[in-house]
Amino acid sequence: MIIFPAIDIQNGECVRLTKGDFDTAERVAEDPVKTALAFKEAGAEWLHMVDLDGAKNAQMMNRDVFITVARETEMKIELGGGIRDLKTAEYYLEHGIERLIVGSLAVRNPKLLAEMVREFGDRIAVGIDADKGQVKFDGWLGEGKVDFITLAREVMHIGVQHIIYTDISRDGTLTGPNLAELKKLRDNANVNVIASGGISSIEDIKALAGLKLYGAICGKALYRETLDLREALEIGAAAPVWELKPVLDPEEEERLEEERRKTSGRGKSSGGQRQPRSGEKPRQQSGGRPQGERQPAKSGGKPQGERQPARSGGRPQGKPTASSESSEAEKPGGQPRRRRRPRRRGGSGQGGNGQNPGGQRQSGAPNAKPEGKE
Asked: Is the pTM of this model over 0.85?
C-alpha cells in the first residue's frame, strides 16, 4: 500500500481544510518544496498535491508551485484541482507530474474523461468526493444525486484504474477513515482504491492495510504529528494489495450476468444433464465414470461395439466342438463310445454334412468361421 503525504496549495501556500470548507484553511507549512523534501527524506516516493484555487475556479492557478516541486524533489506527484481539458492535462504530464486526478469532469463530461484515458492511460485517475454516499464536485461546492458506487463503476468501464475516495465529512477531522465505504468501493468497483479523509494514527494505517487498498493519503495527521510517516511507510510496504480482474465493457458484463442467471435457474441442459461450465471437469455418473467415457469390456467378453460374427441358427451344423467330442468319446461307464459316421444327404455343398461345396471337409478347430462369412 502506497502512503501519499499530502500538500494542498492555496494562494501559493501549504494549507489544510476541514471538511472541504475553504473558510477553514489553515497554513501548515512555510514552503512547499522544503515540506516535500522532508517527506522524501522520511522515505516517501509519492506526493499527493491539490490546487485548491484551481478546483474552485476550474483552471490552473498554482501550476508553477507544482512544476517546481516536481523538478526539485524528483518525487512522483499525483495532482488534482482545475484539470478540465486535454490541454491542461498535457501540460502537467509534460512538465514532470506523474499522475493527474480529475473529479468534476467525471460527472460533467464523461466523454472527455474517456478521451483523456485513451490519450494518457493510467496516468489519469478520478477523485470521488462524497458526503453520505452522494458525490460532490466543483471544489465540493456542487452536488448532485449521484451515488459514489455508481460513478465509480461508470469510470471503471471508461478505463480508469485509480480512484481517490474522500469522505468529506471526515476530511481534516482526524476521526478515522470511513472503512465501510472504502470496503464497499473495493468490492464493487474493480479499481485501485486510494483512501483519503480522516486518517489520524498508525492504527488507521493498519486498518487500511487490512483492506488491501492500493494507497492512503495522509495530511493533517503528519502536520499535527499524530502519525509517524516512517512507520506508516513500513506498514504500507508490507501490506498486500487487492488483486484486480480484467474489466469487461457494460454490455459484455450484462450478457454474462444474464447467462449466469439462466444457468442457475435451469441447472440442466435440454438433454437432461447439466453442461459443465468453462474450466469445469465433467461430472461423474453413478459408478464414478465421467460422462461420455466408453465402458471397458467385461472380463472374458468382447469390447462393446465390436462386430459379432454372423450366425445362421447358431453353430454350423455337423461341426464338432471340443466339448461334444469329449462327451462322445466316453460312455457313462468309462467305456469308449462308438463314434457314428455322419449321415450323408443327397446333394453336396449343404451345411448339414459338414463339407464345403468342393467336397472337402472344413477345419475342425472350435468356433472356426465358415469361409466368406463375417
From this structure: no
